[in-house]
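<derive_structure_tokens>
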Amino acid sequence: MSAHQSGSDLPVFLFDLDGTLIDSVYEHVQAWSKALSTVDIVLPKWKLHRRIGMSGQSFLHELLREKGLGRLRPSDIEGLERRHAAEFSKSIPNLKPLPGARYLLKHLASIGARWAIATTGKAKQTTRLLQLLNIPRGVPVITGDDVDKAKPSPDVFVSAAQRLGVSIEDAIVIGDSVWDLLAAVRKRALGVGLLSGGSGKEELQVAGAFRVYDDPADLLIHIEQLGVPGPHSRPPM
């Protein structure tokens, strides 16, 4: 770290999880496809992919309106969310961190930068995913269980910033979906997009990303662009 830059001078980072640090977006698509098929709702997988990162309730209500199927009862929504979680859970043992994810988090810790995880996922699922990243003790983790409204509501990011003792406006939100970036923009946080969730550069920029990188490894290579000292050598991919 520079002699002129202490940890308190560095930006605070708020990370999404699925598609941002863990390569899991397409497993969510498959899990939702299977869950919906149990109630005879069959949709092209690209339509599901476009909504990964939204809360389950928002996701389902929007899809049902598109299909002209009306609203489901809360108990039906909860049942579909449980089926999705059960299907996705089967894929977790085969998931991997995205390239550079572990090294990015390790580098931030090494220079004293503070960061937190803010995800729409449920706490039980999130705990299993975080085992892939070797998250240090004391890092705040906010899940969909901790807030009344999940993304694209900004609540998870606001809560994560509060846990770090800063205003959301002083944080950098890192996410792979337009829902992450729309949530950041609503609270005037700086948004950084990653292509590793399958969204395009232009749509992430339109949603509010001021920088877009391929994945965590690419972000770490160019991290000086975010006002943070970088590693002395190219990080392992």
User: Anything to note?
Assistant: The beta strands are 12-15, 115-118, 141-142, 171-175, 190-194, 209-213. The longest helix spans residues 74-91. The chain has two domains: 7-24+96-226, 26-93. The chain has a mean pLDDT of 90.
